[in-house]
Amino acid sequence: MAHWRAEQQARMYALEKLDNFRWISNIMAGYGRQELSEDDVVPETTLQYSGQFSEIVYSSVSPELLIKHYEILAQPEFPLEHFNALRDCITAGSYRGTLADVPTYIFIRRNSGQTQLVVSICGTASPDQFRQDLRVLKTPHRSGHGNAHTGFLALYDGIKADLMKGIQDLVITGHSMEGSIAYLLCLDLLADYDAMISTLRIRIVSFGAPRTGDTQLVNYFHTKVEAFWQRSGRASFVEYAVKGYSDGIPAVPPVIMGYQHFCEEPFYSAYGRLYRVPTADSEYATFRFKDGENQNRTLFPQGSHNYYNSRDLEGFRRKLDWLVEAKFPEPGWEDHYRDKLRDSNSRS
């Protein structure tokens, strides 16, 4: 078993082409003051479902087409293997931002007799979007309460008009830059909560998101959360901001520039486990463990930006590219895809 795992890891890391920002983590991510322990471990199930939606929007194939052909694409070693949250969902809409062409999808998921609306925003996937990442100077937020990252706010403004139409009961999720945009959407929803139905429940789930606002804007966000809780109960708004081991993106922009994370009680994903981070350490991006670092618990011991939810995001995107090259869903695509798979396995 250990030998098989080592071979899998060697093959996976040999195929890495995307930047996983481990170098940023090494330079900028200070260790939290408190060591994490078994007492801090929480179940990952809810986040894994949300994570599947945050990952599928990176697809080079339209999510509508992937979901339509879910059964065949969920076979072993096919792109949607382990994406079981997509089994009972449909796409309800898709939008492209007016700035940098940010893809955003709305899914309807039926789970245990309940219908859930999921808004999933794609993370940085193009040079234009990366240029917005670099606009780290702050700009005043329209609420008049503090400032936000200029690039993230501009990207959010590019998709806001479409997203604010008819949102009711929902999950908002995003990976990387789009985790920040998800929070800006949440802030607008909470600021306008008088216009919402009283039974609205919001869950925001972000993975590897950078800091987005200054202290004043973050404090304003928390006053709106408190007001929402007062009206609808604490179960009406839940947030899961997940930082990953060796992922440098949650460490930027740096605190010294006046930035702060929105979430006061984030989570830390490392070595196959999810830990609850103490509020006092919410700005830290990496942690030590009382029970040591058990790398044998996971296939992804090096962690970093593209290994959330116990999945290899780069490997997922690679398989989606193979679908395009195989001319999915034209006749014969499956044979061409399997050829790509065999060729990759033989070379690695």
UniProtKB/TrEMBL annotation:
Biological process (GO), any one: lipid metabolic process
CDD domains assigned to the protein according to its UniProt record, in alphabetical order: Lipase_3
The protein's name: Alpha/Beta hydrolase protein
The species this protein was found in: Crepidotus variabilis
UniProt superkingdom: Eukaryota
Fungal lipase-type domain boundaries: 118-253
Keyword DNA damage assigned: no
Catalytically driven reaction(s): a monoacylglycerol + H2O = glycerol + a fatty acid + H(+); a diacylglycerol + H2O = a monoacylglycerol + a fatty acid + H(+)
